Records
---
Amino acid sequence: MQDLHWALLIFITGGLVTAATVVMIIQGHRRYSAELRDRHG
Amino acid sequence: MADLVTIMAAVPQTFLSPGIAWLLVVVFSVLWIALGVWWGRQGKGDADEFMLAGRNIGLALSTATLMASWVTGNTTLLAPEFGYRNGLWGMFSYALAGLGLILFAPLALRIKDLMPSARTSGDFIRLRYGRAAWWVFMVITAIYTLGFLITQAMGAGILLEALSGFDYRLGMVVVIGVSTIYTLFGGMRAVVGTDFIQSLLIMVLLLVVAALAYMRFPSSEVHQALVGNHPQRLNLLLPAGLLIAWNSALFSMGEVFHSNIWWSRVFASRRNVVFRSFVLGGLGWMTIPIVTGSIGLLALASNLEVPQVNMVFPVMTAQLLGAGGAALVFIVVFASLTSTLDSLLASTADLLAEDVFLKLFKPEASDRELKLATQWMVVLLGALTLLLSWPRLDSLASVLFFTGALVASTVWPVACGLYWPSASRTGAISAMLSGTACGLAAYWFIAPYCAAVLSAAVSAVVMIVSSRFFPAEFRWSQLQEQA
């Protein structure tokens, strides 16, 4: 049971880091796309 | 499932006669070298042509070279091992490695705009975070690249031995030798051209293997056998499976975001195709570990005993499909190994020639000297790979997971460095060092499977905190002007 608790903790951590990375990249890309649109009218 | 077990017992130890194996080796070696040399003669012949194929690759070639380079010996040897050891989670987790390519697509577009004339990922780290960060980055990428080269070379030796009884070292020498020769003469254009054919071969032949395997052993039969004999492998709460679940996704992001293999593809492709080629390459690639991983599950269902766990795919397919199957697997893995090794050799040689030879030791070097230095690096890397892979290791996974602890620490420094002007050099260095230290601690004290997760998590926290509380004020033009 202790193994399962450790594994779940790592699983949740991994899921959160992956989600945070995806969100950071999408936000960065959206800001960049908006900049490009502004620059080119 | 009883008939499957009977078939396993009846099949001999080697599956491809030495004559056929030699014929395939000679045919494909001659083909790759001839095409590589021919493609290498196209274009202007300067350093940019040799290192980045003239920076003019279109969508089809770009997508194919991304897929072929990402289909490694590990995809055909390790993905089935994951399925065999960790069941469903192992198989799906490996497929998540496609996320690395897909998420790099927006970054690739940004790189192309910010640094149109750069050549390597090292250029970016040096200009964005300074020389100290560059040293940390180079140590990480050197260890990763050597680990990657070793697993590919060992995969080559293991494959030929498993399929045809060749000596382990003979197989290794053939694959490394062929890749080195055509990369040496053809540069990036040869790598991209051969990758295109290799990716088509891999996709078509894997489709054939999957179709034949599941026509012969229906999925309901396999499922029943797994439920009866290995119910834990279907359990989504299996602790080992949960540990591995996100590891491949974060590991792959670390590999793709930092490695010059992928940065060189960005610089080599046209701007209007980079985004689409990374997305398409990632999606196409994801189907491959699903197929090879399910072969691992098939091996489990049949209670197949394999002499070494990373031989699950070649042994299983050769036994299921006979001599024809063995030949198919041989071609698939030979193409996978050469297409990855050529990319590794070419892009690492670019990195060493540009970042070390040109920028560190001889800034006044001419274009011709730079090209010559790159060619020398290809040869030296090929020789070093042979030397390091000579002693055989039991599992490719142990080498690979170790490097995961290092490369996952670069995900946030690279991505933040491209989007956040507030990302600082101290933050990036601290993130890479602390992420690596925690990842290695997790590798030794928790489980190798979760090294990349811990490394990326710590590195992310350090980047966020340092950028928020000790922000830098980076001007993007600094990348363009000096590059």
---
Amino acid sequence: MTNFSWIDGSIVGLYIVATMIAGIAVRKYVGKVEHFLIAGREMNLYLGIASLAATEFGIVTCMYTSQNGYKNGFAGATPGILAMLAMFFVGYTGFCVKPLRDAGVITIPELFEKRYGPRIRWAAGVVIVLGGLLNMGVFLRTGGDFLVAVCGFDPKYLEITMTALLLFVAIYTVLGGMLSVLVTDFLQFVVMSGGLLAVTILILVNVGWSELVAAVQKNYGAGGFNPLVKPDMGWKYIADNALLSLAMVLTWQTTIQRLLAAKDTKTGCQVYTRTSVFFLCRWLIPVVWGIAALAVLKPEDVGDNTLLAMPTMLSRLTPVGLMGILVAAMLAADMSTDASYMITWSSVIYNDILAPFHKNQWSEKRGLIVSRSIVAIIGVFLLVYGLWYPLQGSLWDYLRVTGNIYLSSMSVLLVACCYWKRANSWGAAGAIICGAVIPTAFLVMEQLPSTQHFAKVVVGPEYSNIATYIIAATAMVVGSLLKPQTKPVAARG
Amino acid sequence: MPEHWFWFLATMGCVVWYSTITVYVAIRGAMDIKHMLRRLAGNGEEEQE
């Protein structure tokens, strides 16, 4: 039973129409590929904050963080604390992001070409797209699952809901590129934040802090408040998430794209420091929702699929009117994330993977047609992948493993590129191969019945991820030291 | 102070900070969009000339 009514439907409809109008209206400002991919580097501080916040919070974020709250209590918000610290550290010190933005590149692989050569640029582009698309592949289905559970739609409409969601996003992203993404992100930030805050206050008032704490204490004891004493978390969980947070802040393409679209380096770094607290909010708020589900629902209401605990709780707790605002907020969150991810991966495909073909010599018109086509193709991929990929285990574990396909190697390449003069193409190639092979092998082993137990129980996602970073860094050092050094060409004149 | 004060302060801090920043960014972000579109329109006109 759900409280979704025609009033809520009208609120959602109004939001979608307003977003579409805003997104399509700015297409007239797109005259160049640079406008389409990085908004002509005209993004200012507050638009950057709104856009980054909206991008980094989607329905998928809300689902995996609330699942973490349901399964781990308050300790489930630990990755949010680590992400906040990483964002603030990088923004405050300019670690890697300053030289990256100063280089004036469109993507990270473009910077790599200057140190490691064109082949590494191309390979980096491939792993970034591979990891990013696999990561994003589950967004649509998760978003559809949430909407079906909250609104009480028949599950057979899941595919139609997903397709409609994607179509709305694809239309304005294909037409307006990064400019449409920024403008709609801003609208979506306002709607999303209003909805998130309203529902959080509703939960705190209706369920109450004492009930939330009691539910965590009853189900998880001290481990629900402290990850170090929780048997399935501990230091390995913290180390894994600390590495992931730092790597994500440094190289996650959707985050970096805000840095690269900023009007200057100082603005880019400010976007990081001032959005840092949001990275705690984006974890802690849904974790509280997940804990509320733990407090309100009986185990038989949830069953095996803990991912749906939070939306089930919301469908019962949220009254008419607020339900419409909630669904509009979550749609806003999802649409901004999908649009940003589509434009981000398309920018890497166009700028780096297709670089050997266009060699920066295509006309602006041709470049725009190709960029728009790539966005559309990514949309089709997402639809197909989202329909058939069966998600195994925790959603957050899946996202960490697929993200690590490139986060591990790209963060190693970036740090070495910026701060180690001896780093070269051999080391970079070794890091890319090791960084991609380990998480991909883990994903495959997790799916195969014969290796499932070994992957999930013996190794686990934490050790797989930590090993990926260590081996990628080792490969960078060993490969770079093994390559014979060439004498620098003497300066003429 | 409620039980588990760390998580209580973190949760309440998030709600207060997020509410404040939403209003502030909503106002300043709208101005940023206006300036961004004006600059892009200006650049387009300069290139046509």
